[in-house]
Write a structure and sequence with these properties.
By secondary structure, the chain is an alpha/beta fold. It is built from 9 helices and 6 strands. Strands 3-2-1-4-5-6 form a 6-stranded parallel β-sheet. Keywords: Hydrolase.
């Protein structure tokens, strides 16, 4: 019989040892589906609130460093716009009709006026959306990923970003999945095949250094923030 605790420890160790692709020069933070439908539903665990709080810290640092922030939100004009599996099975996407309060972005991570919001109808933020054009307009070469769910919409967007040879940094503490085991294995899968799984602390340090700019130190940026 498989010892799943041992399996999780193994993939965590392998994830830490896996070669990193590395960050880009022009990152953008992508916030995936942190909407009320996916952050306030009946099956969320305590990790959701923690991930939202961590993401708010990251967003504050990104904006201070002039790093673009892009929200991906699922908004449907008709439930038939969903992919077949979601039309056949019960899904939280049933709450994502345009105008439904469930589609609203969580008040813990509200968009700032300069942020970008991209609507989507499936898991990936790239499928039939304006995300490709927006990234080209912004000159982005790296996606710093946050959001929910790690094994669903985050992973789908990461895979499509990797197909475009974008650098990908998945901030572990800023991703949430109420399917705990699926989230854990997806972090390993993304690190192994598609991008890098990084920590919140190292990402905050990167953004602080970016905010400091030439001739200033990271400590200077913290004082003036």
């Amino acid at each position: 019989m498989t010892d799943w605790n041992a399996e999780v420890e193994t993939i965590r160790r392998r994830r830490a040892e896996r070669t990193k692709v590395g960050p880009g020069e022009r990152p953008a933070v992508v916030v995936v589906d942190f909407q009320r439908a996916f952050t306030e539903h009946e099956n969320i665990g305590p990790g959701t609130a923690v991930a939202l709080e961590h993401t708010q810290r990251l967003l504050t640092a990104a904006r201070a460093a002039d790093v673009p922030v892009i929200y991906l939100v699922m908004v449907l004009d008709d439930l038939d716009d969903r992919m077949l599996a979601q039309r056949v099975r019960s899904s939280l996407t049933e709450r994502c009709l345009r105008g439904d309060p469930w589609t609203e972005i969580s008040p813990v991570v509200p968009p700032a006026p300069q942020d970008h919001v991209v609507e989507k109808t499936v898991a990936s933020g790239f499928w039939r959306t304006r995300l490709d054009d927006l990234l080209a307009e912004l000159g982005v070469d790296e996606l710093v990923m946050t959001g929910t769910s790690t094994s669903g919409c985050v992973r789908a967007t990461v895979v499509d970003a990797a197909y475009r040879s974008l650098r990908v940094s998945v901030v572990e503490e800023c991703c949430d999945d109420f399917r705990v085991l699926s989230g854990e294995t997806s972090l390993w899968d993304m690190q192994d095949r598609f991008g890098d799984v990084v920590s919140l602390d190292e990402t905050l340090e990167r953004f602080a250094a970016r905010a400091a700019g030439p001739g200033r130190t990271v400590d200077d940026a913290a004082v003036h923030a």
